Amino acid sequence: MRCHEVDYEIFGDDLQIVEVELDPSETVIAEAGAMNYLEDGISFETKMGDGSQPSGGMLDALMQVGKRVLTGESIFMTHFTNMGVGKKRVAFAAPYPGKIVPVNMMETGEELICQKDAFLCAALGTEITISFQRKLGTGFFGGEGFILQHLKGDGMAFIHIGGTVIKRELNNETLRVDTGCIAAFTTGIDYDIERAGNLKSMIFGGEGLFLATLRGTGTVYLQSLPFSRLANRILQASHAGSSSKGEGSVLGGLGDLFGDK
After folding, report:
1. What is the distance between the alpha carbons of residues 244 and 247, in angstroms, rounded to a whole number?
2. Residue 37: how many other CB atoms lie within 10 Å
3. What is the pLDDT along the chain (261 residues), one digit of tens a residue?
4. Burial class of 132 by CB neighbour count within 10 A (0 to 12, 13 to 18, 19+)
């Protein structure tokens, strides 16, 4: 095994925490700012890159930075190492309502492709790189953009998925999904888009202009609440709240009429 072998426990329901148990000298890597708490004996250091490859020169460092920038993540990752005696624990929190999904990379063919903000933490040795959508239409209308995160390794990785998680196993099958609801899939799955029915359905159906099509053999993780959908609803509610005091109240409308902002 190339990656460190870590144990874990997940707490909570909708705003979850994953607690990773490290043996002496074991390390877990995480997105900057994801740590929730840690026990005495665990040291942490912010580094450029995931530490999966031997440190190279300036060009290698710049390549790592460029990949992180393209996925919209921080250019730094934090490495947590058990420098003490005995087992120690460090915990990482989900950034918004949803589920933390533990993924044994050995069982996924040592690769997993996921939406660009899905990665939370992983055992040292896991490579976090990027995957480009080669099809122009899929990149523009697929809901995930041209850049996806590509995880490689043989240890445990933890991704965060919005809302409820559905895990589907496809065996040379096809699954059509709302473009924003794809969270992750294995490399045996081909990801494309198709038009959402006829013209009337596309305009008035409320499901968007396109659907994502997943074909092949492998594992697919679906999410019920994409973060973009949650953010849009919050934005709409904040705009509605700023326009009137009290939802639907007559007093709120009168207050606006007399300039009471």
Report:
1. 7
2. 12
3. 588 999 999 999 888 999 999 999 999 999 888 999 999 999 999 887 777 766 555 566 566 555 555 555 567 889 999 999 999 999 999 888 889 999 999 998 899 998 878 899 999 999 888 876 655 444 444 444 557 888 999 999 999 998 889 999 999 999 988 878 889 999 889 888 776 655 555 455 455 567 888 999 999 999 988 776 666 677 777 766 655 554 444 445 444 544 444
4. exposed
In contact, 42 and 54? CB cutoff 8 Å: no
Collect all residues with Cβ–Cβ distance below 8 Å to 178 and sequence separation of at least 6: 143, 207, 208, 211, 212
Amino acid of residue 48: M
**How far are the Cα atoms of 86, 114, 156, 180, 252 from residue 159, in angstroms, in the given order?**
27, 8, 10, 16, 43
101 and 158 Cβ atoms separated by less than 8 Å: yes
The residue extents of the domains of the chain are 7-232
- How many Å is the Cα radius of gyration of the chain? 21
Task: Note the CATH architecture for domain 7-232.
Answer: 4-Layer Sandwich (3.60)
Q: Is residue 18 a contact partner of residue 74, using CB atoms and an 8 Å limit?
A: no
Phi/psi of residue 76, nearest 5 degrees: -110, 150
